[in-house]
């Protein structure tokens, strides 16, 4: 677990930097507004692939890989809710997974409808598909609002709360017993981990949040 906690952030950061090096030059080359956020992937890269030899092939490969990355990320994200229902409410894993999947599906419907029309004549019952496109809260549609709150507030608050909980309430010693299986698995850098949890990480997250 300790080794994975070191390798995963390093690889994730390197992947993010490489993605930025690929996308941002194209953004400025095509004169696209760089503040559009995650949608840049679906705006700039198709134009980049259109200029490349075998661009259609590389485009298909890229977006298939992006789809697989999104699906595997969803598995890990859903596991948090699934694990909660299993541990706290003693649900069977299949039932817990179904509950979280249905909840996610329900939440994704207004996200999808807020992105605009699929076609001019598209109708969903008596509601026109994309009818939420003009609904704004804090000048954001529903999808952008959920995306902004999740990325810029919830994730940071969750990380900050975790550091405070482990560092000052539950205790680093209890966390270490959990990670090392009551001392069976050797672990180095305990002092560094304690210092980061109690002082460095909370301070950095507060700065990011501000």
Keywords for this structure?
210 residues, mainly alpha, two-stranded antiparallel sheet
Q: Can you lay out the helices and strands and say which pair or pack?
A:
Elements: H1 2-29, H2 40-51, H3 55-89, H4 93-113, E1 123-124, E2 127-128, H5 142-170, H6 172-179, H7 190-209
Antiparallel strand pairs: 1-2
Helix pairs in contact: 2-3, 3-4, 4-5, 5-6, 5-7
Describe this protein's structure.
By secondary structure, this protein is an all-alpha fold. The protein is built from seven helices and two strands, in the order H-H-H-H-E-E-H-H-H. Helix 5 packs across helix 6. Mean pLDDT is 83; it is low at 119-127.
Strand content: under 5%
- How far is it from the N-terminal to the C-terminal residue, by CA? 31 Å
Continuous helix count: 7
Largest sheet: 2 strands, antiparallel
Global outline: globular
Radius of gyration: 22 Å
Mean pLDDT: 83
Summarize the structure.
With 210 residues, the protein is an all-alpha fold.
């Amino acid at each position: 677990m300790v080794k994975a906690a070191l390798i995963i952030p390093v690889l994730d950061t390197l992947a993010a930097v490489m993605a930025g090096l690929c996308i941002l030059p194209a953004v400025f080359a095509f004169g696209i507004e760089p503040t559009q956020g995650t949608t840049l992937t679906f705006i700039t890269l198709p134009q980049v692939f259109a200029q490349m030899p075998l661009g259609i092939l590389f485009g298909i490969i890229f977006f298939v890989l992006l789809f697989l990355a999104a699906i595997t990320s969803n598995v890990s994200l859903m596991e948090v809710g699934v694990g909660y229902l299993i541990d706290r409410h003693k649900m069977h894993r299949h039932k817990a997974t179904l509950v979280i999947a249905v909840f996610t599906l329900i939440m994704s419907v207004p996200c999808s409808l807020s992105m605009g029309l699929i076609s001019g004549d598209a109708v969903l019952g008596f509601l026109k598909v994309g009818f939420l496109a003009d609904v704004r809260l804090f000048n954001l549609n529903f999808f952008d609002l959920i995306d902004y709150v999740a990325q810029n507030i919830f994730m940071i608050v969750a990380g900050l709360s975790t550091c405070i909980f482990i560092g000052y309430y539950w205790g680093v010693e209890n966390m270490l017993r959990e990670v090392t299986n009551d001392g069976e698995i050797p672990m180095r850098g305990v002092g560094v981990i304690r210092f980061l949890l109690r002082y460095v990480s909370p301070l950095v997250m507060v700065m990011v949040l501000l």
